[in-house]
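=== RUN LOG ===
request id: a7f3
mode: sequence -> structure
chains: 1
length: 141
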Amino acid sequence: MQYLAHWPEYFLLAEAPNEDIMGYIMGKSEGHGEKWHGHVTALTVAPEYRRLGLAATFMSALEEISEKKRAYFVDLFVRVSNKVAVDMYKQLGYSVYRRVLEYYSGDPDEDAFDMRKALSMDTEGKSVIALQHPVRPEDVE
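=== RESULT ===
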């Protein structure tokens, strides 16, 4: 509820005619200066509604909101093992900015990719120049 209260424009929901929740995206804007960006906190599409383009529609809407807020880029974190999601984000124009070691806790802990897509404010594409070394979660701004 905190995200909905603070960033309602970044919370989008798709509902089927039968009132099933098809999926949602939740995000926020954060940072300062050239690090001002939109962030995807969660993107979920119910299994029976996958492969219909909903995720791409949600991502496009979040990018548009971030553009209106004059953000430099949009970022998200995804499990390294989630190849389907990583490939989808790449198809949508995202690239791996850095690897975050043990970002997801579990048994064992799992690394994340911090993926980014530059927006029109980032005319030189600085925000998506990949780091050459992994970082720890405590080093993520």
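=== NOTES ===
DSSP finds three helices and six strands in the chain.
The chain has a mean pLDDT of 96.
=== END ===
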